[in-house]
Amino acid sequence: MNWIANVVPPKIRSFLRRETPENLWVKCPESGELVFHKDLEANLFVVPGSGYHMRMPAKARLGALYDDAHYEVIATPEVPLDPLKFKDVKRYTDRLKENRLKTSTPDCVTVTAGKIETIPVIAAVQDFDFLGGSLGMAAGEAIVTGMLTAVQRKLPFIIFTASGGARMQEGMFSLMQMPRTTVAVQRLRAAKLPYIVVLTNPTTGGVTASYAMLGDIHIAEPGAVIGFAGARVIEQTIRETLPDGFQKAEYLEAHGMVDMVVKRHDLRATLARLCGLLTQPHAAEAA
């Protein structure tokens, strides 16, 4: 029996039952270690004991990326909310409202401008917490806007990818974002501007089949799952057992699909170094 319910008077009981945040303690999926949420947040959402890289909220990632956590959010064009009037268990418009309330962002991609160790860049972050980071019209429009802004301002473009693939609620409108973003990448390339992709966990589906694998340099966070189809689907298709660690960042680096695997604490310095090297005034002439 609960002694609080049976013995303590109601007014005192309500005082004792103050609401506690659900995420006060976070369990590491790899080691089972329990970490106090504030400690995890202070450590860039990397579990101190195991080094496991938890999913990092978009706002926290941007704050850790830029000098003094200062950046400009670049406005992106509005798109039709529900072109197909899609409904499954609930209406697509209701799902959008719920996710906007949960993340405080219009869609899964946020485009920003700021400085990394005094080097100006344009950076976009894909938030998996918003409908699994799925690529829809709004996300595609944001990425294209970010790339074209980089061309206009003559700055490097960095994107942090995290997605389950295309957004099924938008059908062909979602799939069309793959060629649209690919064309925008070509605009960056024609302007001879660096395009750096940081692959975070997970990056899959149509995102991997388009802008996520078209960078000049591909960086992956440790343990990130990167691929097109899921491992189980591949095994069922080819009827073979896949190697250990298949589709993990370290496996892809060893097989040439990823240029480097960089721990989150070293990521900011690595990006600054790369942007500095790739934007030197005489780099193009020397090449």
Mean pLDDT: 91
Largest sheet: 7 strands, mixed
Estimated radius of gyration: 21 Å
Oligomeric state, counting identical vs distinct chains? single chain
The percent range for strand residues is 15-25%
Give the uncertain stretches in residue-range form.
282-287
The secondary-structure element order is HHEEHHEHEEHEHHEEHHEHH
- Name of the CATH superfamily of the largest domain: 2-enoyl-CoA Hydratase, Chain A, domain 1
Shape: globular
What is the tally of helical segments?
12
Instruction: Enter the CATH topology name of the largest domain.
Output: 2-enoyl-CoA Hydratase, Chain A, domain 1
Helix content: 25-40%
CATH class categorisation of the largest domain: Alpha Beta
Query: Biggest sheet, strands in spatial order?
Result: 3-4-5-6-7-8-9
The rounded distance between the terminal residues' Cα atoms is 77 Å
Number of E-state strands: 9
Class by alpha and beta content? alpha/beta
Give the number of domains: 2
Structure characterization notes:
With 287 residues, this protein is of the alpha/beta class. The chain has two domains: 32 residues, no CATH class; 231 residues, 2-enoyl-CoA Hydratase, Chain A, domain 1. Helices cover 37% and strands 16% of the residues. It is built from twelve helices and nine strands. It has a seven-stranded mixed sheet with strand order 3-4-5-6-7-8-9, with helices on both faces. Strands 1-2 form a two-stranded antiparallel ribbon. α6 runs parallel beside α8. The C terminus is likely disordered.
